[in-house]
Design a protein that fits this description.
heterodimer; A: alpha+beta; Arc Repressor Mutant, subunit A; two-stranded antiparallel ribbon; B: mainly alpha
Chain lengths: ~110, ~180
């Protein structure tokens, strides 16, 4: 099993952390990623990736309330587990180390 | 979608789609998301259960092909000319639906979509071979139209219809715990 998140998985972890457990379900997660990064993610991709991440223990989910506006279907709320938070920190640390000392990436916006 | 997408994904996803649709998203957006959900769920199942995928396709084909061959051969004894195709269309549909029914009752939900997708790909390969290899005499246009319709529309739609038809009583024993679970 992979120990490192891919770019979509990392974005999902960060989006879930930004939203907090109460707001972190499919639509807001997808919207958060789109508004923050400009990347459009299909709702099915969001759930497929979150399912995979739940199996790896990076996130946990609980069934929320079902409303008439959702055709009586329940929401599935996600939260990042301690393992998930550790993983995000490690990934950030690794990326920052990789970033350092690259002349082309310093000082400009391109 | 509830009948064909993996259990853990379908309820929450369908709820999200309905919420968004009620909130003003277009019908095109809705159906595009549904199509993506079917494809993503099927692709995931192929990776996770490759051997089961192969056996589902074999069982589907082993049901549909003999049923289709036997029923159309029998029908051809009583009807002649191009009218035969009018009889063949429902026979092809019901043969495909029967195979979709069996696949849905024997395997997890996305297998029906995978099997229908396989039918489309196999038909495309068969027609490509016909087009590129000069091994057959030209097929008369009405026959070709029937074959195209049955392979690319009637068959796959029949498989999906059979799968949806079988869903209410199907046990999803191989799937992850349902969201309905307490």
């Amino acid at each position: 099993m992979a120990d490192h998140p891919g770019s979509l998985e990392l974005m999902l972890l960060l989006a879930v952390l930004r939203l907090g457990e109460d707001k972190a379900y499919g639509v807001p997660i997808s919207t958060e990623i789109e508004q923050t990064t400009g990347r459009r993610v299909a709702l099915a991709s969001v759930y497929a990736a979150l399912d995979r991440m739940e199996e790896r223990g990076w996130v946990a989910s609980r069934v929320g309330e079902s409303t008439a506006a959702r055709g009586g279907r329940a929401k599935r709320h996600f939260r990042v587990t301690t393992e998930g938070v550790r993983l995000v920190r490690e990934t950030k640390g690794s990326l920052v180390k990789m970033w350092r000392g690259i002349r082309e990436l310093q000082g400009g916006t391109t | 979608m509830e009948s064909l997408v993996a259990g853990r994904m379908s309820e929450a996803l369908l709820g999200d789609l309905i919420e968004q649709y009620q909130g003003g998203r277009s019908r095109t957006w809705y159906w595009w998301q549904v199509l993506q959900a079917l494809v993503i769920s099927a692709g995931r199942e192929v990776r996770r259960r490759t051997l089961d995928t192969v056996s589902a396709i074999i069982i589907g084909c082993a049901t549909a092909l003999p049923l289709c061959y036997a029923s159309t051969s029998l029908a051809a004894r009583f009807v002649s000319g191009y009218k035969t195709f009018l009889v063949f269309v429902p026979l092809v549909f019901f043969s495909a639906a029967a195979s979709g029914w069996i696949v849905r009752r024997s395997y997890p939900r996305p297998m029906v979509v995978i099997y229908a997708g396989f039918c489309l790909v196999a038909s495309a390969v068969a027609f490509a071979m016909y087009a590129w290899l000069p091994i057959y005499d030209p097929i008369p246009l009405p026959v070709l139209a029937f074959l195209l319709a049955s392979d690319f529309i009637i068959g796959p739609v029949g498989v999906l219809a059979g799968g949806i038809w079988a869903s209410p009583g199907a046990r999803d024993v191989w799937e992850s715990p349902s969201l309905d679970a307490p």
